[in-house]
Amino acid sequence: MSYGIAARLRPRFLVRDRAVLTGHAQRDPQRFGVTVTDPVSGVPFEVAVFKYPGPPGAPQLLAVHGFRGDHHGLELIVDGLTPYEIWVPDLPGFGVSGPMPDAPHSVEHYGHIVNQIAQFMVSPILVGHSFGSVIAAAAVAANVVDYPHLVCLNPIAKPALDAGTLVDRAATLVTDGFYRLCAALPSGVGRRLLGNKLIVWATGAFMTKTDDPRVLAYTHDQHQAYFSGFDSPITLLEAYQASITHTVTDFADRLCVPVTMIGGADDELSSPQDLSALAEVLATDDVETYVLQHTGHLMHYERSGAVAVLMVSRLTDA
User: What band does 168 get if pLDDT is binned at 50, 70 and 90?
Assistant: First the structure.
């Protein structure tokens, strides 16, 4: 079914019950804190973790959200992963987790935090979406936790300044300049600019590919509710610069575990060709790549059901 431009610009079918989109009952998380140490200073601090219980004795899965996200962004996929107990932390500086006390918010430092959380689990499968895929790859590459499998959703295979069309690369430069400006302004002013509802809406509208008004409405509602849940403009700038300068490819030669990649055919940040090139340089021979048609970089909203089915099938067979 196709919908007109008006439905895309102002979707009216606000969805509060995720089951309408997934066909699965909503899974309600249990929130708790995990004490980790700052990667630079060793100062202890707490990261908020949201656990979605699974069946008794269920295998565990640790999921890492993307840039400017928190645990809410992965809930549509989580709802479909019924065989698993799933932990989703709010990364430091986002959601309800405070920033790292001293360390810059870099890919390697985030990977260090993820590995500390994983040590409270039993052989967790590691999953990352978008920027979270880069963090997850860094965590695996550090070789301090025995992860049985790495799943990358919309993996970043090429630096943002090299990916997509000229328009996409120009948008990356404009966004970088905008984040730099907001970080240089007084914190309150910068935060108000970053949280401007029109700018947040435009970000989602630019990246989404679906024309289902229910999914569009859910996506915009999620972005308005959680896209501005960051600690400060400075923390956000650090994370953004990490997200546009590092890729899963940076760690490919150290990814020796089985890898599953699921991408979108219309993803501006990582094309199917980019994913194929990444698969060729991974250290592991056990890699499967799936590309969902008519899907962009917001796959976790647009095609959550298909993603969950592919993950369960692959992880069951692996």
Answer: confident
Q: Check residue 211 and give its pLDDT.
A: 83
Question: Lowest-pLDDT range, 3-12, 159-168, 284-293?
Answer: 3-12
Q: What is the pLDDT of residues 197-215, one digit of tens each?
A: 999 998 888 888 988 889 9
Q: How far apart are CA 239 and CA 212, in angstroms?
A: 31
Taking 60 as the threshold, does the pLDDT of residue 258 lie above it? Answer: yes
Neighbouring-strand partners of residue 148: none
3-class DSSP string for the chain: CCCCHHHHHCCCCCCCCCHHHHCCCCCCCEEEEEEEECCCCCCEEEEEEEEECCCCCCCEEEEECCCCCCHHHHHHHHHHCCCCEEEEECCCCECCCCCCCCCCCCHHHHHHHHHHHHCCCCCCEEEEECHHHHHHHHHHHCCCCCCCCEEEECCCCCCCCCCCCHHHHHHHHHHHHHHHHHHHCCHHHHHHHHCCHHHHHHHHHHHCCCCCHHHHHHHHHHHHHHCCCECCHHHHHHHHHHHHHCCHHHHHHHCCCCEEEEEECCCCCCCHHHHHHHHHHCCCCCEEEEEECCCCCCHHHHCHHHHHHHHHHHHHHC
Give the domains, in start order, of the chain with CATH numbers. 5-317 (3.40.50.1820)
Examine the pLDDT at 52 and tell me if it is beyond 90.
yes
φ, ψ of residue 131 in degrees (nearest 5): -55, -35
**Separation of alpha carbons 261 and 279, rounded Å:** 9
Average pLDDT over residues 220-242: 95
pTM: 0.94
Rg (CA), the chain: 18
